[in-house]
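Workshop exercise sheet. Pairs work together: one partner reads the sequence aloud, the other fills in the structure field after running the prediction. Swap roles for the next sheet.
Pair: D.N. / O.F.
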Amino acid sequence: MQTQRVAPKAPPLDGLWVLLGAGEPVLARAGDDQTYLLVFKNVAKARQFVAQQSLDAEPRMVVRGNRDAILQTAKSAGVVGTLLDYDASTQEYASASALA
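Structure field:
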């Protein structure tokens, strides 16, 4: 009997919030010189980040209708993963995941 190793799936983005500035997702470069898509569990955390950073961006929920466009834009920008609930003041985040 052969066993096949399956790569772990990245967590789905659906239902999370991203920030869009000029129609493009807001990205972050981490200390490992990799680029990440910022995602948030709820709109309140997303708005808090925008206010703290004085960004010209709007929170948008990731849904089936916009997921592919967000992923395509992120991948074309070299994004390797997501940072969930990133706090710029402490430089901490709830979790990091590979991009779906």
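Discussion prompt: The mean pLDDT is 90. What would you look at next?
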